[in-house]
Specification:
Blueprint: H1 11-21, E1 26-29, E2 35-39, E3 42-47, E4 52-72, E5 75-94, E6 98-104, E7 107-120
Parallel strand pairs: 3-7
Antiparallel strand pairs: 1-2, 2-4, 4-5, 4-6, 6-7
Keywords: Signal
Protein name: DUF3019 domain-containing protein
InterPro entries: DUF3019
């Protein structure tokens, strides 16, 4: 669909191509049997360099009950007391992708990434000084 020459590359078709070619969900399974799923896994911004907004649904499952916290970098976002599963809604607003991690007292148990795609590249061209 995206490479067909009959379609004019309008903003709508470019956005559709970006959405269809990106993963809908990122699922990461750690060695400890914990599954972490992010839906959607890709945020699409109109233009490169603009803030990308998305509501990301975070879900996790574990074979054994655990105390887990979701964090982005060093910032804790949400914690669940002892349980085998959990879900949370994360309001993503970033310029670039971000890695989310499920952390227990023992360390990182699972991680998944939210990536950022752009419909248009930044059109700004660096201008060099010229005298003539």
């Amino acid at each position: 669909m995206c490479s067909d020459q009959r379609y004019r590359p309008t903003l709508f078709t470019l956005l559709c191509c970006a959405l269809l070619s990106s993963p809908v969900a990122a699922v990461a399974e750690a060695t400890g049997g914990i599954k972490l799923a992010l839906t959607p896994a890709t945020c699409v911004a109109l233009q490169q360099g603009r803030l990308c907004y998305a509501t990301v649904h975070v879900r996790w499952q574990s074979a054994t009950p655990q105390d887990l916290c979701l964090q982005a970098g060093t910032q804790k976002l949400y914690c669940w007391p002892t349980g085998r599963e959990g879900q949370w809604r994360y309001e993503f607003a970033e310029y670039d992708g971000q890695q989310l991690q499920l952390v227990s007292p023992d360390g990182i148990q699972a991680q998944a990434t939210i990536s950022v795609n752009w419909v248009q590249k930044n059109p700004r061209v660096k201008r060099h000084w010229r005298l003539f």
